[in-house]
Amino acid sequence: MTGARVGSALTDEQAAVRDLVREFAREEVRPGAREADAEGSFPEDVWDGLAELGLTGLTVPEAYGGSDADETTYAVVNEELAHGSLAVATALSVHCLVTSCLAEFATDTQRERWLPEMAEGRPVGAFCLSEPHAGSNPAGMSTTAEHDPDADEYVLNGEKQWITNGSRAGVAVVFAKVDPDDPDSITQFLVPADAAGFEVGPSEEKLGLRASDTTPIAFDDCRVPAANRLTEEGRGLSAALGTLTGGRIGIAAQAVGVAWAALEAATAYAEEREQFGEPLSEIQTIRHKLAEMSTDVAASRLLVREAARRAEAGEDARVAAAQAKYRASEAAMSVANEAVQIHGGYGYTVEYDVERFYRDAKVTEIYEGTTEIQKEVIARGLFDTR
Amino acid sequence: MKVLVTVKEVGEADDDFEIEGTDIASSDLEYDLNEWDDYAIEAAVQLAEAGIAEEVVAVTIGPERAEETIRMALAKGADRAVRVWDDAFEGTFADVSSKVDVFEAVVDEEEPELVLSGVQAADTAFGATGVALAERIGFDHAAVVNDLDLDADAGVANVHRELEGGIEELTEVDLPAVLTVQTGLNEPRYASLRGIRQAQRKEIAATDLADLGLTPADVESTLTLTEMYEPESDSDAELIEGDAGEAAGRLAEVLREKGVGA
């Protein structure tokens, strides 16, 4: 735990959580990050540690054994954890998205069934929204959930893509249309991974985030009881708006964590590496680069904090979340890029972490709403309020 | 039984630091719970979890700033804390005896059966407070404990003490006792989110000398910090390179030059 106290508007409790996760990320997460990336395997022991700290219950209500964290705490945890490993932070944030949906939409019986165990770390949650042909445009999805009135069950058919925790998950929140011809019929379902017809595909080979477990999931006449329908028919996306906005703030915070990690690595390298008879940190070109990087990180962090504050205050945080996600993910990419540049040839090798930060950073501009989608959300805010 | 754990917030210097007057610049210090005390807290919390300790009380001498660190001990499972501070401590360099004066008064008030204390503090490294306290309050003690098995019914702590040269002493200490805890006694846990939340509601009793029936004269230090400087160090390490034969040859040469086996 560190005692850093500078420039933060966090409450004592939030600061204590930040210090705790910072120490855990430094001691338990970062040391294994390079190997997990190289092997493309998720560090399950780290997940167990997250569970012991209570982080897997971050968005689980206290009544079900979680800590029902506020948005700022959620953002702080995501930033600190991503500073250790983006793959681990991503896995946790998806798990939290699922527990949030269950907390908000599931019946008491289902909450009892799933949330206490998920707060304890397992089963892990997966969030099945994207499809091979429907990424930025979820309304274009083709997965269907047909109601079978005789059995009072829904029958799911279709394919989902880019599912984080795909093979680790024990339970999934799945979006499907109850009427294949009606784009407004998207509905949310709770599907246990051991349901017949729940088929996990092979892991994706990715540029970065390689320790994250990403797979397609297919539904082949996968039946769930009607009680597993989480939202009213047709309310699957709109009902989840608040949860998805909160999730977006978490992803923005993760991007800040990656950018900060890259900045830190570049600063340390600039101090130790000598060229032209002096450390790089004495050369103005490099000093100014680092000054810009540092400002990018700070600005992104403040956008995240502001979005979290709005969400916490019950204000509409959609635009603020989109701005934070857009700005922070671009900062992650540019700061990681400059960090590699400052490392020169060494930065291009796996000997230094910055090449991983660079590969990992790219995905923050893509997932949980691409940069282009974030800009669209922001523009909508501009014109709708004019 | 009640367990009292003495804890201290210590400042750790960054790699590069400035000296201001007789201290390291506060901007170059990061404050944290003294490492040894973390093991002492863990030992106490384990005793509570085993149903042996009914209450774990952390006590510290420190300014208000130290509450953040003390709260971490509460988040890890201590039930409440006592923080002693007084204007009389401002700007002074407390000696062991003044700390013992304070802890003695706290022990009188709390009446613990077991006092756990880190072997030493990472900043001053006196390594004396725990044992000096035991002497003062008339408790048995064991220093540098790296294994603890407490038999509450028999009123005995079976401990291993780490001695120099890798030797361990196995001994029994009758309760009430003071044990000074060595790193490695256990594996200190991380706090949990739930623990952090509970800790916000736990009591940290701010206590001054008058509350303890002491006066500034009682805790007057015999020590004054006169100077703080970074000792100059020369390093003339030679890295011996080459294959085993060459390296052994060069090593033998160096040893002979230094007079070994001459």
UniProtKB/TrEMBL annotation, chain A:
Q: Which cofactor does it need?
A: FAD
Q: Which GO terms describe its molecular function?
A: acyl-CoA dehydrogenase activity; flavin adenine dinucleotide binding
User: Where is each Acyl-CoA dehydrogenase/oxidase N-terminal domain found?
Assistant: 11-121
UniProt KW Oxidoreductase keyword: yes
Q: Which residues form the Acyl-CoA dehydrogenase/oxidase C-terminal domain?
A: 234-382
Residues in Acyl-CoA oxidase/dehydrogenase middle domain copies: 126-222
The UniProt keywords, alphabetically, are: FAD, Flavoprotein, Oxidoreductase
Entry similarity comment: Belongs to the acyl-CoA dehydrogenase family.
Q: What is this protein called?
A: Acyl-CoA dehydrogenase, middle domain
One Pfam assignment:
Acyl-CoA_dh_M
Automatic annotation (TrEMBL), chain B:
Record organism: Halorubrum aquaticum
Q: What is this protein called?
A: Electron transfer flavoprotein beta subunit
Which SUPFAM superfamilies does the entry mention? Adenine nucleotide alpha hydrolases-like
- Does this UniProt record's set of keywords contain Transport? yes
GO MF term set? electron transfer activity
* Assigned protein family: Belongs to the ETF beta-subunit/FixA family.
A Pfam family the protein falls into: ETF
- Which CDD domains does this entry report, sorted A to Z? ETF_beta
Instruction: Output the InterPro entries linked to this UniProt entry.
Output: ETF_a/b_N, ETF_b, ETF_beta_N, Rossmann-like_a/b/a_fold
What keywords were assigned to this record?
Answer: Electron transport, Transport
Q: Using the record's annotation, list all stretches that form the Electron transfer flavoprotein alpha/beta-subunit N-terminal domain.
A: 21-216
- List the PANTHER family: ELECTRON TRANSFER FLAVOPROTEIN BETA-SUBUNIT (PTHR21294), ELECTRON TRANSFER FLAVOPROTEIN SUBUNIT BETA (PTHR21294:SF8)
